[in-house]
Amino acid sequence: MRMTFKACQQAMLTALINGTLALALMFLIEFAISGHLHLTGPYLWAGVLICLVIFSAQFYRQLKLCRCDQYRSSAEHHSKPL
User: Fold this and answer.
1) CA 33 to CA 1: how far, in whole Å?
2) Measured distance CA(26)–CA(28) in Å, rounded
3) For residues 40-51, average pLDDT
């Protein structure tokens, strides 16, 4: 359970940072093209979708890394000579 929570925490942090950066970039491009900063629904939905995609990919990646790390540490613990 602890491993899953750690993976979820790392994935959420990565998704929020990347989603926020993507949303800021979309607003910057909108301002550069039109000269006005319009907070429209499609931009917000795109930001949410980006966050969800990044979260799901990073969650499985982090979970796999945690499992590999746990497996490696248990293998080293069992392979030490007495």
Assistant:
1) 47
2) 5
3) 88
